[in-house]
Amino acid sequence: MPVSVLAEGAVPGAQVPSHLTRIPVAEISAGMDCSRKSVQGRVVSKGPLVSPGGDNFVLKTVLQDSHSDSSSINVVLLGALAKEFDRAVSQGDVVVASGFTVGSSPTHHKDQLHRCNLQLSGEHACLFVSRPPAPPTGATLKRHSAQSAEEALHQLPTQGSSRTRKTPKYTYTGLDQLKLGVVVNVYGVVVFCKQPFRSRGTDYCSTLKITDQSNQIVWCSIFCKNPVDHPVIFQVGDIIRLHRVKVKPFNESVSLVNTFGFSAVTVSCADDGPLEPRTTSGSFHWDQEDVRKVQELRGWAATGQAAVLPAAVPLSKVEPRSYFDLTCQLLAKAPLDATCTLLRVWDGTRCRHPLLEVWVEPGMMEAGPALEPRDAQGLVVNVLAYDNHVESARQLQPGDFLKIFNLRALPAASSKAEGLAGSQMKEADASHLTFHLHGGTAFGRGIRVLPKSSPDVQKLMRDMEPLLQRGEPSDEEVLEVWCTPPEFPAGAEQVQISSERRCSHDAQQVTLSELKHSSSGRFHHVRVQLKSFEPQRLHQALKLYCSKCCSMCDVPDEEQLAAVFAASSVKPGCSGPPWTCSGQADLPSGSPGSPARALSIHLSTQLVCEGKTKELLLLEGATLQETSHLASAYSNVIPVTSSGGHMTLLDLSAPFLFRGRKRFYGCRRCSSATLREPYVKGQDSIDEKSVSEVLGVELLQFVLLMKLQLQDATDTLEVFLWRDAELFFGVSAEEAATNQEAQDVVSQTMDSLCPPGGSADTQPWLQVCVASYLDGDGKRTCHQICHTSVVRAPSAGAALP
Fold first, then answer.
1. What gap in Å lies between CA 408 and CA 643, rounded to an integer?
2. 726 pLDDT tier (thresholds 50, 70, 90)
3. From CA 615, how far away is CA 612, in angstroms rounded?
4. Quick check: 587 and 571 in contact, CB under 8 A?
């Protein structure tokens, strides 16, 4: 069986063959030999099963590494394996995959997951599935709650599990009350951290110093076989919870050492930072009592009593011969010799001192995406990682965000004295700086990869965006939608954001507290601020909506679409409809495919518009990239495949029509797609509506769907922004799907209404009309913003273009 399901509650991977070596998701790379490798992860997203034709099934899922919340990877399943996976596997199951191949992920820049994806098909691919026992009810945290657009639209209540178990209770010991030999649970603030390093035995070791309100400082030693099993600490000051650690003597004091069943949870130290826990465990408990403890420690640490070291130093404030921590992004890397690796990094600030250039042999530099700043002078610096850091540096990928601990700034003369060969140093003054990560782990020296969700990384991205050198978008990026925007560049026109109601209701203005206690089926006027919004990645707000069945779904990503097109590729020469002229055609000049590759192109010459013929291009056997390229030259491109000797449309999870940069989708429930002789009456031109009618496809429309949390002095309220979202932003959803300017309007509007890291004092007040109504089951009152638009006006004294 390609999919083997273990008994409920069985240990994940219990039946995996012994010859397979499990590898962490973070270590997967393109071109690696996977014949004796396996990957274990939890299913955090499961896409629909699609069939372009026949048995060419395709399914996409996302696996999150069981031991690293920050490592997730797309998995594409093909053929019978995809069908079996759809039947047997549910979201939340733990899966061990083997017999896979590694490819490049075309959606990496959008979904911010691993650069590669796993592809499973054929007789050698195998999946071992274990289902966790029924989760506890109550306040237990659901780490991967993902509500579909359909659920968000209809607000279906979550059904509790029929089997419940008692929520566990934990007792925590203060650091000043530890007793030798006792296994305890503790909370603390990290005042020192040494990243995992290889011990003298078979394990990796990491050491911490933590403290709490007692001002007692305690050492902690953690031993685990894999670095990914260690506490996920991004910086000194993080708050950590340790379960099942044993108190042992240490230098006339005590220390904590992990024991059987050990687990660690860490949370950001920032007072306004997210309360999302980072964990090394496959499952863990987290409730309001934990949130309360974290907030208490945050408040105590903010008073300065925790003796926390200063935050990372930006490059703009680095002084020669100083030691500092650096938060940065990796642009490129190169091995210099067996004991040294060069890392080219930047943090969006400019170093005040001249920088040393390092010579690298041609072909040895590994660069990533086109992220180079417009003016690299002073922005990009060279970091030399020595000795034991060479191994970890080689595993880094260009584009990764890093925290480098205990980095040293050295002048050129000292760099040469400390090991950098003179032949590798370009001619420079002795004061030119380079940056050294010396060997060893003293003072916490090391490197850690940060996830893009980290507050430090979010700030970096906003600082870097105005400095990036942007070229023309590639074919894969043409239809990539937007991310959360950067801050306004210096000198740009500043705007004041407000809103106005466009309704004729004579309702009196009420507070949110009064609104929440009022009956449904009414309109309300409120004066509010925007506290938060979902989704944070704004491209996820774009949905596809069917006006006939009122269903809503996500816009398929490039990786899923590429898999559908790849599965539909068949040899040309099938029998087409009588109204087509089949022929072989080479790809147009400049196509990304091989010039010698032939596609099956069918030209319709009988699409009638009041006696006029219009041309359709039916394209068979092309990849998604090739189809997009051809659509730039032809008005109407329809991808097709062969099934049972006849030509059919692709599965409607893929676009049924390409027109330039625009793609059009059909509803899978309401469509009766077929290729028949087309006739369009009473029209002078061909558009997507006429083509959809000819093909029997119910056309889906783009819409914007967001969940906003409003606040005033009395209460908070969650509302939807959907039916009047286009009025609210002043742009159409269809424009937002392909037009950068429209995307910028949405991004800048949300950034102004809810500034990252901003306080309530700086946020604008909005006049909003809110409709209250019952959900689809008639059991719950929901709220939606309506008849409201955002008003943008230049602020006083703003620089005008």
1. 64
2. very high
3. 10
4. no
End-to-end CA distance of the chain: 66
Minimal CA–CA distance to 541: which of 487, 476, 481? 481
Which band of pLDDT confidence, cut at 50, 70 and 90, is reported for residue 69?
A: low
Residues 24, 65: Cα–Cα separation, whole Å = 7
Q: Are 111 and 74 in contact (CB under 8 A)?
A: yes
Which residue type sits at 320?
P
Alpha carbons 207 and 720: distance in angstroms, whole number:
46
Tokens representing residue 708 in the block: 């906003």
User: What DSSP character marks residue 372?
Assistant: -
List domains and CATH numbers for the chain: 3-130 (2.40.50.140), 183-302 (2.40.50.140), 315-465 (2.40.50.140), 495-541+704-794 (2.40.50.140), 558-698 (no CATH)
* 563 φ/ψ angles, rounded to the nearest 5 degrees: -65, -40
Nearest to 216 by CA among 176, 256, 257, 172: 176
The long-range contacts involving 756-759, CB below 8 angstroms and separated by at least 24 positions, are 756/458, 756/459, 756/462, 756/484, 756/487, 757/272, 757/455, 757/459
Positive or negative: CA dihedral 21, 25, 29, 34: positive
Q: How many CB atoms are located within 10 Å of the residue 175 CB? A: 20
When the pLDDT of each residue in the chain is averaged and rounded to a whole number, the result is: 76
CA atoms 727, 730, 733, 734: torsion sign: positive
Angle at 702 between CA 701 and CA 705, to 5 degrees: 125
Give dist(CA 324, CA 347) in Å, integer. 14
Looking at residue 486, its pLDDT comes to 33
CB 719 within 8 A of CB 152: no
